[in-house]
Design goal:
heterodimer; A: mainly alpha; three-stranded antiparallel β-sheet; 10 helices; 3 strands; flat; B: alpha/beta; Rossmann fold; six-stranded mixed β-sheet; four-stranded antiparallel β-sheet; 22% strand
Chain lengths: 264, 284
């Protein structure tokens, strides 16, 4: 999570208006889910990967590593789609007989599973593009402009700001305990962890109190009124988002025509 | 109009848990000067600061801003906080936003200034504190000293008349200390602010302030110019403080080693002057 944050701040796409990136990512995500097509899904993965790596400058290795994160969930999830049960052995590529029925992989099951798998990866790649090119604060600015409740956005901002302070504090306490053999055995480990959590809670509580005092002295009246930085906003971002997605939609429609399926 | 921008008269403050943190504190903050509050931990410096800013309402006694008692109504406090800004000791308690730019703009936006004016002030405050290059960095990637500067900028955007800093040098390395103190002095000179800071770093006091209050256990023990205060070494030592290192050296040289020196020299430049003078008298 923290390395995603670092890459987002380093991304060459950081200066782009976050709204454009949100529109681009969500539109493409929508098209990917709607198209429900193997080729479109692969295309989306490549477009998003390409944008992140080539335009944003995120290392390819890191992007691939991130794409591998949801793999285990996906495999298990997709397995239930791929495995089919039937009364007859026909239609299975491989099957085993269990009692009076056959369980195995069929061609349709496998292709369904594959397209689901790629669709999910395509969707994930859209979100990775967004999170690897847009720091959280910029994303929150876009969400605010999209009309999300102010309170929610402010809370997200505070959580994001103080999660790092919290991790830092927990780290310091952990090290201090570890230096005094606080984690040398399982029982002392549990005891140390317990006191770590309670101390952390007390510290967080006190810090919130102090933060409130500091905010008050700067004229806080219940709302975080701040100015956001201005972005260089060219229309090109939106144009790109619409063009790419129009092409994807067109392509998807053509693919459906070829397969002879229904248009919608 | 009096020369005091802020005054406290016989101020008492008792916390909810019964701690009597201020026991009759009377201070006068001179307009356009730098005033230091020197005291050990728990001397009541932070409590006094929060009382001067109207965050704490004194149990007894009163605080005067520009000769008038503080108005603790919502509007009165708002006006006061526009004029009296506090920079807290731990910047992590002050910076609420992960975006440096947003955090600095907060105070100015709360003053309901037009956007153009806020942007101008944020830019000016960042330039003044030397953090323009940090504007795109998230708060959690900054060093302690950088966070401190952001915190100062966040108060400067309100263009206060009084800048109060609680332990501005705590947690900084030696270079960081002299940089931040130079910055504060620069701000004070250029903007004509009244600066108030608390510290237990004795050596910076004679270098950077015009007037000193020494606090101990909720009381003012000594006050005066640094020279006056540091000539009262017995009282200083009785409240767990000491002379500046140079002052101590001068005292030892005079009392134990028989040098005929003026022992009130407490800074390097004062000591140099003293020694040059001594050399010249020896030659004659």
């Amino acid at each position: 999570m923290i390395s995603i944050d670092k890459y987002a701040y380093r991304s060459k796409l950081k200066a782009v208006d976050p709204m454009q990136k949100v529109v681009f990512a969500l539109l493409t995500l929508g098209v990917c889910l709607w198209a429900d097509d193997l080729i479109i899904s692969v295309a989306v993965i490549f477009i998003m990967g390409g944008m992140t790596v080539l335009k944003g400058g995120t290392p390819l290795r890191f992007f691939i590593k991130l794409m591998l994160v949801p793999m285990s969930f996906l495999f298990i999830g997709v397995l239930t789609v791929a495995v089919k049960m039937s009364q007859r052995p026909e239609g299975f590529l491989a099957s085993i007989a269990v009692g009076g029925a056959w369980i195995g992989f069929s061609y349709t099951g496998l292709s369904e599973a594959l397209s689901l798998f790629l669709k999910a990866l395509g969707a994930v790649s859209c979100l990775y593009f967004l999170s690897l090119s847009t720091p959280v604060m910029d994303l929150l600015a876009a969400l605010r402009r999209l009309g999300l409740p102010k309170l929610l956005v402010e809370l997200m901002g505070l959580v994001y700001r103080f999660i790092f302070v919290l991790i830092d504090t927990a780290d310091t306490i952990y090290n201090a305990q570890n230096c005094r053999l606080g984690y040398s055995s399982l029982t002392t480990g549990y005891r140390s962890l317990g006191s770590l959590v309670s101390v952390l809670f007390i510290r967080a509580y006190r810090r919130s109190d102090e933060l409130y005092t500091a905010l008050e002295s700067r004229g806080y009246e219940g709302e975080f009124n701040v100015l956001e930085e201005t972005y260089v906003s060219h229309r090109t971002g939106y144009v790109l988002a619409i063009t790419v997605n129009a092409l994807l939609v067109l392509f998807a429609v053509i693919l459906r025509q070829i397969k002879g399926g229904a248009l919608w | 109009m009096s020369g005091n921008i802020l005054e406290a008269r016989d101020l008492h403050y008792r916390y909810n848990d019964g701690t009597h943190a201020l026991k009759g504190v009377t201070v006068e903050i001179k307009r356009g000067k730098t005033t230091a509050f020197l005291g050990g931990n728990g001397a009541g410096k932070s409590t006094l600061f929060l009382s001067l800013n109207g965050i704490f309402k004194p149990t007894a006694g009163e605080v005067l801003f520009k000769g008038l008692p503080l108005d603790y109504s919502r509007k009165g406090l708002k006006d006061l906080r526009k004029s009296v800004g506090i920079v807290f000791q731990d910047p992590d308690n002050q910076l609420f936003s992960a975006s440096v730019y947003q955090d600095i703009s907060f105070g100015a936006v709360n003053m309901k200034l037009p956007e153009e004016e806020v942007r101008r002030r944020v830019k000016a405050a960042m330039e003044r504190t030397g953090i323009s290059h940090l504007k795109d960095k998230p708060t959690h990637c900054l060093s302690f000293g950088q966070k401190k500067r952001v915190a100062i900028a966040g108060v400067l955007v309100m263009e206060p008349e009084v800048l109060m800093l609680d332990e501005p040098t705590a947690g900084l390395d030696p270079i960081g200390v002299s940089e931040i103190m130079k910055l504060i002095r620069e701000i004070q000179k250029e903007l004509g602010l009244s600066v108030v800071f608390s510290t237990h770093d004795i050596d910076i006091v004679p270098l950077y302030c015009d007037y000193v209050y020494v606090m101990d256990q909720g009381r003012i023990m000594l006050e005066g110019t640094p020279k006056e205060v540091f000539s009262q070494k017995e009282i200083l030592r009785s409240v767990n403080l000491r002379l500046p290192r140079i002052g101590h050296l001068m005292e030892i040289l005079r009392e134990k080693d028989g040098f005929e020196l003026d022992e009130t020299a407490v800074t390097i430049s004062e000591a140099r002057r003293e020694f040059k003078h001594w050399r010249d008298t020896q030659k004659k």
